[in-house]
Amino acid sequence: MNAQEQIILPLDVADEQAAIALIEQLESVTFFKVGLELFTSTGPKILEVLKSRQKRIFLDLKFHDIPNTVAGACRAAARYGVDLLTLHATCGKEALKAAAEAVQAGAADAGVKPPKLIAITLLTSLSSRQLAFELKIPLELPEYTLEMALMAQEMGLDGAVCSPVEVAQLRQSCGDDFLLVCPGVRPTWAQKGDQARSLTPAQALAAGANYLVIGRPITAAADPELAWKRICEELVAVT
Ligand SMILES: O=c1ccn([C@@H]2O[C@H](COP(=O)(O)O)[C@@H](O)[C@H]2O)c(=O)[nH]1
C-alpha cells in the first residue's frame, strides 16, 4: 500500500449531493469516512454510492451504549460490507466483546467480509487538562489511551483510533497486527481547529499509524485538490 492509500478522507458534509461533489473533485482518493453527520442525513444510501465507485469505506458511527444495543448496532452495520467500523472503548469490556462477535455474525448473515472493528481510545479533540478536569480521569493521558487500546485488543477488536501523539506508544505495546487509525493529523500549513493532539502526516506515519484521517486541511482548503496533492507529495518525500 502506498502512502496515498493510507489517507482516509472524511465526508463531513450535510448531504449526499455535497458528498458526491467531494468524491468527484478528489478522484484519486480511494478511502472515505462516513461519519455521524452524513450518515444521519443520508442513511446507508451513501455507502452504495461509494461502493459503486469502488471506494473503501470507514463507517465512523462511534457507537456507545450497553452491550446488547452495541452488539445489535454492530451486527446491522457489518451487513453493509464496510471496511472499518468504530465504537468507543468506554463502552466497557462486555460491550466490546459482544461487538466483536456481532460484526462477525452480521457480515456472515449478509455474505460480506466483516469490517475491522476499532475502538476510540480518547477523542483527539480532548487535551490532558480536559481528561483530568472535565472527565475526572485520574490517569495521565498516554496511560489512559494505552489502557483503552489494550482493553480493546484483549476483547478481540482489530484496532484503535488514537491521536498521532500516542501512536508510537500504542504500536510498541499492541504490536504490528493491531490497526492504528489516527485523526487529528495536521500538515504544518493547516489550522488545528478543534484538534487538541496533532502531528503532521509524515510524523504520524513514521510513528506507526496504519491510516491517517485528514479532513479540513483538504476539504476546507481554497483548493482541495491542491491540498490533497501537497499532502501526498509531502508523504512521498519521507516514505
Ligand atoms: O478521536 C477522533 C475520532 C474521530 N475523529 C473524526 O476524524 C475526522 C477528523 O477531521 P478533521 O477535519 O481532519 O479534523 C472527523 O470526521 C472526526 O469526526 C476525530 O477527529 N477524532
TrEMBL record:
One of its GO terms (biological process) is 'de novo' pyrimidine nucleobase biosynthetic process. The keyword Lyase applies. It catalyses: orotidine 5'-phosphate + H(+) = UMP + CO2. SMART domains: OMPdecase. Its EC number is 4.1.1.23. Pathway: Pyrimidine metabolism; UMP biosynthesis via de novo pathway; UMP from orotate: step 2/2. PROSITE patterns: OMPDECASE. Residues 6-231 form the Orotidine 5'-phosphate decarboxylase domain. CDD domains: OMP_decarboxylase_like (cd04725). The active site is at D60, K62, D65. One of its GO terms (cellular component) is cytosol. The keyword Metal-binding does not apply. Keywords: Decarboxylase, Lyase, Pyrimidine biosynthesis. Substrate binds at residues 12, 33, 60-69, 124, 186, 195, 215-216. It is an enzyme of class 4 (lyase). One of its GO terms (molecular function) is orotidine-5'-phosphate decarboxylase activity. Pfam families: OMPdecase. Catalyzes the decarboxylation of orotidine 5'-monophosphate (OMP) to uridine 5'-monophosphate (UMP). Homodimer. Belongs to the OMP decarboxylase family. Type 1 subfamily. HAMAP family: OMPdecase_type1_B. This is Orotidine 5'-phosphate decarboxylase. It comes from Brasilonema sennae CENA114.
